[in-house]
Write a structure and sequence with these properties.
By secondary structure, the chain is mainly alpha-helical. Helix content is 67%, strand content 5%. The radius of gyration is 23 Å and the shape is globular.
Amino acid sequence: MTVPVAQSRPIFPRLAADQRLYAGMLRYTVVFWSVGLLTLVQAIVIAILAFTRAPAGQLARMVAISWISIGVLQFVASILAGVWREQAGQGIMQLASFGVLGWIMGGLAIWAGAAHGLSGQPVVRAVSILGGVIIVLAMIGAVGVSLGLPRLVLPYTLPMLIAPNSISAQLYGSLAIYIPEETFGEQVTRLILFYPYTTALGLGGIGITLISVLEKDMRFRLLGMTGGLIAVVFSWSRLSLGALLLCALGWIWLRATFKLRLLFVFLALFVLFAISIVGFDWPAALMSIQDRIDGVRAGSSLARHLIYEKSWEGFLQSPIFGNGWIGPSVHPKEILPIGSHSTVYGLLYTGGVMTFAAFVVAITLTLASGVVRLLSEKSGRSDEVIVMLLLSLTLLFFCKYESLFSITLPCSYIFTFIGGALEPQRPMRSSADDADRFKRTRKLS
């Protein structure tokens, strides 16, 4: 007797959309990026996929809704703060800001990923090809550096022509391959590509590397992983490099057998015992490493600490619903607004305890759901769930130092993959099949 399996159901069966649409969007990333419309196209594709089919699994639904709720509560907080600050119009206008829409799009990406199986091989192949594109663009950047060009930026995209002074247009609508920045006390070229800033490229590179591990064809696997590693390394993001190392250790640990894990534990205990015997002060060594990391691009570290300090002060002034939106820049020339560069401090500043609590629930539910999926996985997709867990942990690792709402669209494949891996059963039919079935049903009726 065959046990019926719940299938995700179409919401608008006349609209034909499946994982081929998302994979195609990834394959044509360079085209959309070259005209400055990549972020807009990503938002449209995710919205279409999310509104054409609903996930079947309860875990994926709960996780997606929890991420959407962050944006909803942030909008409520913006309205309340606008009334409190006697700027109600400014509060309502936040509905169109990334501080609200970014969270909602992240949740919709998880929803769409679960509904359409966006962790399957077509999407994995497209992500691997995206890694290959990064290799080509990095080579172009290398030529530019060898020619002595300090930066390789082409600002003549549609958003930059329409709104050249808009910060959003500069971040999400410009075409830049690399930019200069001070690192180790000297100017270092940092790749940026089709991401709003270099740290986002590092996070995106981690996603490409991990997802490409699942590619069955060795050639495409190497292509994707190489491109992802290039993105991480040449973004010169300290956070991304550390997260990549932790992901590698996590991959080894989660795929190891029980006996091998015991061996790792005993080796770690032995090393700790040995360094204690010889009098090595390992806590002080860790603090020294942290100081050295902060010393890399010391100006950046100081700017972050100043932003965090001002954000905390703003939170204390309005702890329940926050200040509604990000504040002025802490630097007269650079874009360093209060409430930015951190999900933790940013949410506390802009949305208060109510919005920050929603984020804690969302990230906790995401990790817990991943653990449940891994423990209950019996369909041969354990590696896929492990990658999903590592991606979720990477988001947790980034949340203190980066504003996650600003990268949900540029790194949408991370969120769609999380949704796809959370769904125990991939949809057996595409939305095109659902549309045909809907038409046949109408004819019969």
